Amino acid sequence: MKYPAVLSFADILPMLDAFDTIIDARSESEYALDRIPGAINAPVLDDAQRIRVGTLYKQTGPFEAKRVGAPLVAANIARHIETLWGEKPREWKPLVYCWRGGNRSGSMAHILAKIGWPVVQLDGGYKAYRAHVASSLENPPELDFRVVCGTTGSGKSRLLETLSGIGAQVLDLEKLAAHRGSVLGHLPNEPQPTQKWFESQIWDLLRRFDPARPVFVESESKKVGNLRVPEAVMARMRASPCIALSLSRANRVRLLMEDYEHFCADPSALNGQLDHLVQLHGRDRITAWQDMANNGAMPELVDQLLEQHYDPAYLRSIDRNFVQYPEAATLELDDISKGDFEAAARKLHAA
């Protein structure tokens, strides 16, 4: 094969995991929005340089833009080779892409091929990859989803994490979304990813799952924080068999106190989130809950939130949204220790 080889994403997909390095040659802001999972960012033009060259292209013309851009591109590629790939063996096989598979990735691929590496360039670039992801998520693979249901604090996320740890197939949407899925679900110091990167991670997991084995997933809403679960994936989940996770309310309070320790340490942050519930519960009740937080009555507050907010909302939605929930097998947890979740996970994994 002559290198650089310029291949479509359809041709690349069967060997995507065989590349030694996937190089995203776009700018750092483009990379942050979305990328092929596993790709590293090695900009041919960084954000500031891209703006400079693009402005010249519009205001002066392509010749001046290329005259200024060429030495920038050359210097950036040289630096990447020296700092990132200078010690790579002759057999090192990289995949390079940019926005459309044009000048930026083409420049890098050309130089890498001239050195002697068997480099592949993605024809159509990121746009071709993104089109494939969007199409795939509109018609996701037929997988044996097992939906873990349960009221807030019953340990669904811990069970999924434990299942993953023992080798089960798990689609943990809350982990991918960096959000626990409720009005109090924002994780401190961990922003949510972009919608496109969320979808890329879902696509990457779905394509790797063995359809002959079950895939465990939580009974999510259509949105996890600010992110939307792809409609076709949600439809498959909602039509799938369910597992009803059961835990006493006292233990649910204990579990939530552990999982939301940041709110216990910062009542003002919790009270800011509680303000979002005024329309549902009225100002008087929210003020009473906020007073409980300020006075250190966290267990009592959590118990009331479960009884008066979370449990009624769950019961209103679960039967309507997950059609097989009435036939769900119950999985009871006696406590919230690591051993309890391991026993429950192994029971499900062996079924």
Strand content: 5-15%
The stretches of 5 or more residues where confidence is low (pLDDT under 50) are none
Mean pLDDT: 94
Distance between the termini: 48 Å
Strand count: 12
Largest sheet: spatial strand order: 1-5-4-2-3
General description of the model:
By secondary structure, the chain is an alpha/beta fold. It is built from 16 helices and 12 strands. The strands form 3 sheets. It has a 5-stranded parallel sheet with strand order 1-5-4-2-3. Helix 11 (249-259) crosses helix 15 and helix 13 runs antiparallel to helix 14 (278-294). The two termini are 48 Å apart. The model has no long low-confidence stretch (mean pLDDT 94).
Summarize this, please?
The chain has 351 residues and is of the alpha/beta class. The protein is built from 16 helices and 12 strands.
List the helices and strands and how they pair.
Elements: E1 5-7, H1 9-12, E2 21-24, H2 28-33, E3 40-41, H3 47-59, H4 62-85, E4 94-97, H5 103-115, E5 120-122, H6 125-138, E6 144-149, H7 156-165, E7 169-171, H8 173-177, H9 195-208, E8 214-218, E9 223-224, E10 227-228, H10 231-238, E11 242-246, H11 249-259, H12 261-265, H13 267-274, H14 278-294, H15 298-321, E12 329-332, H16 338-350
Parallel strand pairs: 1-5, 2-3, 2-4, 4-5, 6-8, 6-11, 7-8, 11-12
Antiparallel strand pairs: 9-10
Fill in the keyword field for this structure.
single chain, 12% strand, 351 residues, elongated, 5-stranded parallel sheet, alpha/beta
